[in-house]
């Protein structure tokens, strides 16, 4: 069985502050096959990499991301010395593009937000500027869009049908336990807790043509489970530790 491909969850966030350029640089140094980020819109319409609705937990400041302008977000300390402020999505794209080897980028749009579909519109516009919105084949795309919001994933598929999508899952709908997904979702994205409860789900999804992206996997027993089940993408906070576990 081919080992899962490793995705650095918010960068190598077990080692450095999440969603910082340093954390993503370290993830690439650690050999991550992909990196994952969450994106939100600032008050003045810039995509920034912040997981929470507010900056309270991850920065030296306080406030709702969507109420703060980029200039203010740039003034905050996000936990890495000498790194200027918030990480913009464009800066992360540049890092991945210049990595010197293929690194797949998984972009999660956060919902609900005050800007609703504008988040996906801005994401698509940014990907278009980098020439990444229209891959020749989904399997070759260096970027995948994902969300827990079915509406957001459907919206992205409608505007960029060539871009692969992941429907993230906190629970599996009873009608989807057979591994099927809506026609606008390409990969299934269950939390590891769902595979512990129903390990057969991965095989059923694959039989329906859907590979699996699993979040967030750090425990050795969970890593072994994902490998045994044939999970395609494994999101982890420590790429180097997870790689070692897969090699053992």
Question: Can you put this structure into words, describing what you see?
Answer:
With 248 residues, this protein is of the alpha/beta class. It has 9 helices and 9 strands. Strands 1, 2, 3, 4, 5, 6, 7, 8 and 9 form a 9-stranded mixed sheet that branches. The longest helix is centred in the middle third of the chain and has 12 residues, at 118-129. The chain is globular, with a radius of gyration of 17 Å.
Number of helices: 9
- Taken in chain order, the helices and strands follow as EHEEHHEHEHEEHHEHEH
CATH fold naming = TIM Barrel
Strand content: 15-25%
Number of distinct beta strands: 9
Which CATH architecture is right? Alpha-Beta Barrel
Number of structural domains: 1
Specify Rg, calculated over alpha carbons.
17 Å
**Quaternary structure:** single chain
Give the secondary structure arrangement, pairings included:
Layout (H helix, E strand, L loop, with lengths): L4 E5 L11 H9 L4 E8 L5 E2 L21 H6 L13 H9 L6 E6 L8 H12 L13 E5 L2 H10 L5 E5 L17 E4 L1 H6 L3 H7 L5 E2 L5 H10 L3 E4 L2 H9 L1
Parallel strand pairs: 1-2, 1-9, 2-4, 4-5, 5-6, 6-7, 8-9
Antiparallel strand pairs: 2-3
Helix pairs in contact: 1-3
């Amino acid at each position: 069985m081919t080992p899962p491909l490793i995705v650095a969850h918010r960068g190598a966030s077990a080692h450095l502050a999440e969603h910082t350029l340093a954390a993503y640089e370290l993830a690439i140094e650690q050999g991550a096959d992909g990196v994952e980020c969450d994106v939100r819109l600032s008050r003045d319409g810039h995509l920034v990499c912040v997981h929470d609705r507010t900056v309270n937990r991850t920065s030296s400041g306080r406030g709702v991301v969507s109420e703060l302008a980029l200039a203010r977000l740039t003034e905050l300390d996000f936990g890495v010395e000498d790194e200027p402020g918030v990480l913009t999505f464009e800066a992360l794209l540049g890092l991945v593009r210049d990595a010197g080897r293929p690194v797949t980028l998984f972009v999660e749009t956060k919902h609900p937000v005050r800007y609703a579909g504008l988040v996906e519109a801005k994401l698509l516009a940014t990907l278009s500027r980098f020439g990444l919105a229209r891959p020749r084949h989904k399997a070759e795309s260096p970027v995948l869009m994902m969300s827990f919001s079915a509406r957001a994933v459907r919206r992205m598929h409608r505007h960029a049908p060539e871009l692969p999508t992941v429907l993230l899952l906190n629970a599996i709908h009873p009608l989807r336990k057979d591994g099927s997904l809506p026609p606008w979702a390409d990969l299934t994205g269950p939390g590891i807790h769902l595979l512990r409860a129903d390990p057969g789900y991965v095989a059923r999804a694959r039989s329906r043509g859907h590979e699996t992206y699993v979040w967030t996997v750090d425990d050795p027993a969970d890593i072994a489970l994902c490998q045994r089940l044939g999970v395609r993408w494994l999101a982890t906070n420590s790429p180097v530790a997870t790689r070692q576990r897969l090699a053992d």
